[in-house]
Amino acid sequence: MPCLNVSTNVNLEGVDTSAVLAEASKSVANIIGKPEAYVLVVLKGSVPMAFGGTQEPAAYGELVSIGGLNPDVNKKLSAGIASILESKLSIPKSRFYLKFHDSKASSHHFLLTRHIIHRFFAQTLVGMAPPSRFEVRGRGSSEGNRCCLMSYPLHDGVIRTML
Q1: What is the pLDDT of residues 62-100, one digit of tens each?
Q2: Active site includes 2?
Q3: Do 63 and 28 form a contact (C-beta atoms < 8 A)?
Q4: Separation CA 80–CA 23 (nearest Å)
Q5: How far apart (Å, rounded) are the C-alpha atoms in residues 144 and 126?
Q6: Which Pfam families does the annotation name (predicted)?
Q7: Largest Cα span, the chain
Q8: Nearest to 148 by CA among 132, 162, 159
Q9: What pLDDT is attached to residue 50?
């Protein structure tokens, strides 16, 4: 689940933040190659910050993703998000800093997000009970070759959902 968190010293009152969020979400999904349904974008305004010794409009962002990041992708993401901030918030591209973190999938991560995964499927498959079984499968390598298996009991059997 890619997460883009952007803070800026620009006051967002009167700004169409929906357009900024939508454009950033679409851009992150397209560049990383993950479904937009999994992208989270947070935008905070009026955050006191100085960049290069001045308090002119500036922004700082962090992007965390489970895979999908590499130097080429990072350059495209920096350019894409900087363009959005420049066009929508009048923040010069030279006054934006974006930090990347490629979080490798692990059983620890999936166990921490079990409730998020369940909530997603509970919203998708309305009225279902919590999973009867939850496990992480995979080779256990540090490269994150793992997946989650949740089993949901149904009146006529069991549906298994792989993530």
Answers
A1: 999 999 999 999 999 999 999 999 999 999 999 999 999
A2: yes
A3: yes
A4: 10
A5: 30
A6: MIF
A7: 65
A8: 162
A9: 97
End-to-end CA distance of the chain: 12
Closest CA to 27 of 104, 85, 102, 92: 85
Burial 15-45 (b: 16+ CB within 10 A, else e): eeeeebbebbbebbbebbebeeeebebebeb
Q: Which regions in the chain score pLDDT beneath 70? A: 105-163
Contact 103, 41 (CB under 8 A): no
Count other C-beta atoms under 10 Å from residue 145's C-beta: 12
Q: Which residues contact 70 (CB under 8 A, 6 or more apart)?
A: none
Determine the Cα–Cα distance for residues 57 and 113; give it in Å rounded to an integer.
Answer: 35
How confident is the model at residue 146, as a pLDDT? 45
Please give the pLDDT value at position 52.
95
Q: Which of 22, 15, 113, 20 is nearest to 64 (CA)?
A: 113
CB atoms within 10 A of CB 65: 21
Cα–Cα distance, 163 to 146 (Å, whole number): 9
Give the three-class secondary structure for 93. Answer: helix
Q: Which of 2, 57, 131, 153 is catalytic?
A: 2
Please state the pTM of the whole predicted model: 0.66
